[in-house]
Every structure is written in structure tokens, then in C-alpha cells.
Model the fold of this input.
Amino acid sequence: AGKLFQFKLVLLGESAVGKSSLVLRFVKDQFDDYRESTIGAAFLTQTICLDDATTVKFEIWDTAGQERYKSLAPMYYRNANCAVVVYDITQVSSLDKAKAWVKELQRQADPNIVIALAGNKSDLSARRVVETEEAQAYADEAGLLFFETSAKTATNVNELFTSIGKNSKLE
Ligand code: GTP
Ligand code: MG
Done:
């Protein structure tokens, strides 16, 4: 018989980097050009097969990136098995914000939490300001999984969540 793993996953990152869009792509394979900013947080689930013997169910908390909701975040990351910290490759400030979230998670979340850094909006390459190598070097140094993603084109979205599932399973 196969194994079923259940993981609580939290998404964190500055407002408008595309957290909700990544979840919508992963859960429903859809994308909206005009998404409303999240209020508080949203809860969704998605189940994936890692291989014919292993199923992973993600319980996903998509948090609100606006500053006024910042104090709610610990409620969502406290019991999380995994986290996706998102920045936007066209906004330098969003990488700084992502680094601050990683620091907070590494201090306050479960010591075994698996953290992935996602550089989203990779389809907007003409407006790129964060180089892949720079983010990869930071991710390596901080011990994070790293993917550049596009919720719009679906690039690397399934790869991101599959990698988190595999790495969380190993903990
Ligand atoms: P908050 O809920 O305020 O924290 O924002 P968020 O991080 O959830 O961002 P959201 O998913 O709402 O996306 C913000 C805007 O960016 C929307 O207009 C999306 O359509 C757009 N967007 C999200 N992902 C991508 C992407 O991969 N490429 C492009 N071009 N646009 C994207
Ligand atoms: Mg949102």
C-alpha cells in the first residue's frame, strides 16, 4: 500500500509578488491578470502523487502580504512543515522582504521546516532586476530550495511544490 503524507504549507512574501497566483496555478491550473489582494489569509488544499507509492496532501495557508497583516503571520507559520517565500524578479525590495521572512522562519518556526524561495514572474524577463545567480547564491547560503517561477505561464510551479513535497518527506 502507498503512503499518504499531510503537510501544512505557508506562503509568505511582499504584497503583489504573486503568492495567491502561484496557489491558484497549483490548485486549479488557472491565472487571473487582475487578482484582488488577499485579506487576512486564504486556505486551500491540493494533493499530488510523488510516485506510485507516495501521495502528499498540502494544506496551504496563503497569507496576505500587506504590512497591516504582518502580525498574523506567526499563526500560520507556527505549525507549518513547509514554507514558500516568494519575491518578484522585477522588484529588488521584494527580495529584501523575502530574506527577512526567511530569517524570521529560521528563528521562530519549527526547526525542521523546509523552506523554498520562489522568484516569481519569470515571464517578465525584460523587466528583471534580480539575477538568477544572485538569488541562487543566497538560497544556497541560507539552505533553501530555489526556483524561478511564473504563475502566469505555469513555469516551474509544479516543480516547486513537488520538490517541497519530496524534501519534506525526508525530514
Ligand atoms: P497579496 O495577497 O497582496 O499579498 O499579493 P499576492 O502576493 O498574493 O499577489 P497576487 O497573486 O495577488 O498577484 C499580484 C499581481 O501580480 C496580479 O495582478 C497577478 O496577475 C500578477 N502576477 C502574479 N504572478 C504573476 C506572474 O507569474 N507573472 C506575471 N506577469 N504576473 C503575475
Ligand atoms: Mg494574495
Summary: The beta strands are 3-12, 41-51, 54-63, 82-88, 114-120, 145-148. The two ends are 21 Å apart (CA to CA). The pocket of guanosine-5'-triphosphate (ligand 1) is lined by residues 13, 15-21, 32-35, 37-38, 64-66, 120-121, 123-124, 150-152 (CB under 6 Å).
